[in-house]
Amino acid sequence: MLGSRALFCGRIWNHSLFPKRSGNFRASFRTKRVGTHNGTFHCDETLACFMLRLSSRFSGAQIVRTRDHQVLEKLNAALDVGGVYDPESERYDHHQKGFTEVFGHGFNTKLSSAGLIYKHYGLEIIAKELQLDQKHTDVQRLFLAVYKNFIEAVDAIDNGIHQYDTDQPPRYVNNTSLAHRIGRLNLDWIEPDQSSSKEDEAFHRAMELAGSEFLQCVHFHAKSWLPARSIVMECLAERHDVDSSGEIMKLNKQCPWKLHIFELEEEMKIDPPIKYVLYQDDRSENWRIQAVSVSPDKFESRKALPISWRGLEKEKLSEESSIPGCVFVHMSGFIGANRSYEGALAMAKASLVA
């Protein structure tokens, strides 16, 4: 269903990023030219340039790095430079006074050049990856998921928007983000060669890094995230067949259900929410019972397993719970196990009323 990342990168890099003037004037004239600023580069414009070149209109486009407005005016598009946001003329800057553009669809983070390009070309890129029409529901769903899980962070970091509303200093330093890694590809001050050609080579490498991680994100959501979502949706629809309370879900096939359960509960208007998920351990024949957390980024459970069970194993746990086949319950009460599905279901039902 999907082309490989190598195929995409090959299509991009088979065209020189900074081609020399060709003797074939007609061919050179037809090549689209996309401008972005020179000097220190950042994650947003390197990613924006990569994504724009995935579009049909700008496939194989030459990247021109300059701040000269007379040069920029003659180019087919300009990203992160020029002080203009005008999709009709392919101008995508976000630094100008009064710029407040957001992605929409419930997202309120101010866009960077990456978010602007994705907003206008993301559907086309996703549709090509899935080999589906842009109006297909899977394309629309991945369009939003990739923004949420990849592009929005690039927008926020470039615009100086903190992830948390707090004045407290961070507990540790994290310089491993994509933005940090892109930043480290800029020429170091100790480099003896600080020429524009050397700077352009570094930009080339940064664009490849940003683009490869973008495509990894798209591929993951297409090949793993989307199928898992379908499985969880089906299991949620069958929750009343598991228990009349509707608060216990049986996972029919092992998959990353935590990525989806919160969004699907809201989408499917599930009330009361799921308290426990039952699934077979992929390393044994045991069945796990896991308490659903209060939110995707919290460890606290909606309803943890009973306090009297926590830290117990095997016979002691079965005796305390009056349920045969118990294996363990974690000290925090977020997960436990039983040797059979029936035993795990009994543990879930008893926990609901505990």
UniProtKB/TrEMBL annotation:
Coiled coil stretches, renumbered: none
Domain of life: Eukaryota
Gene Ontology CC: cytoplasm; nucleus
Transmembrane segment boundaries: none
Pfam family, one: MYG1_exonuc
Entry protein name: Metal-dependent protein hydrolase
Organism: Brassica carinata (Ethiopian mustard)
Phylogenetic lineage: Eukaryota, Viridiplantae, Streptophyta, Embryophyta, Tracheophyta
